[in-house]
Design goal:
The protein has 475 residues and is of the alpha+beta class. Helices cover 36% and strands 18% of the residues. It has 15 helices and 17 strands. The longest helix is centred in the last third of the chain and has 27 residues.
């Protein structure tokens, strides 16, 4: 839909000047937010996630956002705020980002403390520097600049900033359903995400979903001496690796019955959008220190990343892990697994086929169990022609000097499908950074140029949305 109203978007140049003048202060805010170790996956950091919520709440209030509140979800909190004083008929925009982060392991691979927010040259390092604390702050900073210069915005704005995205937003489906009226909007924008490459801007038209599980193998009530019991007691690590190896082949293709049942064929338009990225698999691997490209040769690397489901072992443990050797047969072994899934697949159904496969694996002298983890996301596919995407397309054209492309994203942002399911709105992923910037890994960083570009993009977006509404009225 479009909106019918005249609006003056004067003052944008002054807004951009204000953003430039506040660069140093904005960078300090990012350092302060990175310094809060808001790791949502670890119970030991539960209060840190809440501290990040308080910090974000304070910055929103300082910027002039109204009705700011830390809202309970049954898990980690989220922060809401709004400003709803635009001219009659102007759209209401829901802005989304998250302030929780991934764990920092392995700690010894970090060049500096992961929550230091250290600046080296034109990059800021730290957990959350790219995903997603820089993007989150740019939403508030762009809003603050408009309020400082014009004492208002040309569109209505609502904020929903989340504290549990990195664990799959487990409490957000019920939260959104319970607060549909408060969150009602015409469109949503996510500052969580990335750009497809340094030179080619893009707007992601789809996101992979996800499901995850833990597998546990038990063979005894306690560890035993490998000399006294080797050859008598089953080794749970042997069982676990046999089970895991039965789930995929040497090219990474999943061998679990039913896993691909709901996967749709790749259509030509979507495939062409990937070709437009100009991806070099060898360079992409070299950028992250990977030995070589790997995967099902029936599909291109980008098709495997963006358009095909995947299966991964996220972690595996059991037995002695310390220095030296301890000659035991462990009593148990464990693994965490996940699958990224594509539109038309359902995360619960995919979990069920993984569960069935594990339950059918009946090794001698061992008990195998599997349970679903909270990390879950529904896949999402959108349209290029939504008002949000049309506005963002113009913004990216201005910033990059070339037309953006419309690929899909290999990662998952659970809230996007939830906005569609419960609020009936589409989400535009207008985010800055690259997947090669250590996201979810040691030495995560964000170039300061992307931090600045994101602020500028959202400042222009508010004006662009109002301008599109005005232009449509004049047709």
């Amino acid at each position: 839909m479009f909106w019918t109203a005249k609006v003056s978007c004067g003052g944008l140049k002054d807004v951009e000047t204000h953003l430039h003048e506040r660069k140093a202060a904005y960078l300090e805010q990012l350092k302060e937010l990175i310094a809060i170790p808001s790791v949502s996956a670890l119970e030991s950091h539960r209060e840190d996630v809440r501290e990040a919520a308080r910090y974000v709440s304070d910055k929103m209030k300082d910027a002039g956002v109204e009705h700011v509140e830390i809202m309970e979800t049954g898990g980690h909190p989220c922060v809401y705020g709004d400003w709803l004083h635009a001219s009659p008929g102007m759209p209401t925009v829901l802005l989304y980002a998250h302030f929780d982060v991934q764990p920092v392991d392995p700690l010894h691979l970090w060049k500096d403390r992961p929550f230091s927010g250290s600046v080296e040259g034109e990059k800021i390092f730290g957990r959350g520097a790219q995903d997603d604390k820089s993007g989150l702050l740019t939403l508030i900073q762009a809003f603050e600049a408009w309020m400082h210069v014009n004492e208002g915005l040309p569109v209505n704005v609502k904020f929903l900033l989340e504290g549990q995205e990195e664990i799959g937003s487990p409490n957000m489906p019920a939260f959104i359903q319970n607060h549909k009226g408060k969150l009602a909007a015409d469109m949503a924008f996510s500052a969580d995400g990335s750009q497809p490459s340094a030179d080619v801007p893009g707007l992601y038209m789809g996101l992979r979903g996800a499901t995850a599980a833990q597998i546990d193998v038990q063979t005894a009530s306690r560890d035993v001496h490998s000399g006294s019991f080797g050859g008598l007691v089953q080794n749970p690590i042997h069982v676990l690796v046999q089970l895991l190896s039965s789930m995929f082949d040497s090219e990474g293709k999943v061998k679990v019955e039913g896993f691909y049942d709901d996967v749709l064929d790749i259509d030509d338009e979507v495939r062409q959008d990937l070709i437009n990225i100009g991806h070099d698999a060898q360079k992409a691997c070299a950028a992250v220190g990977a030995i070589a490209p790997f995967g099902d040769q029936a599909y291109t690397p980008l098709e495997r990343i963006y358009l095909r489901p995947s299966f991964d072992i996220l972690g595996i443990w059991g037995g002695f892990q310390g220095e030296g050797i301890k000659t035991i047969i462990p009593s148990s072994a464990h693994a965490k697994i996940s699958s990224r899934i594509v539109p038309n697949q359902d995360p619960d159904r995919v979990y069920k086929v993984l569960e069935r496969h594990a339950q059918r694996f009946v090794p001698a002298a061992a008990n195998v169990s599997i349970h679903q983890l909270s990390f879950k996301a529904i896949p999402y596919a959108g349209s290029k022609e939504t008002p949000g995407n049309l506005a963002a397309k113009e913004i990216l054209r201005e910033l990059y000097g070339r037309e953006p492309i419309f690929p899909r994203m290999g990662g998952s942002i659970p809230i996007v499908a939830l906005f569609k399911q419960h609020l009936g709105i589409d989400t535009t992923t207008l985010a800055f950074g690259l997947d090669s910037q250590g996201v979810h890994a040691p030495n995560e960083f964000q170039p300061l140029s992307y931090f600045e570009m994101s602020r500028l993009a959202y400042a222009r977006l508010f004006a662009k949305l109002a301008d599109i509404a005005s232009r449509h009225t004049e047709l």
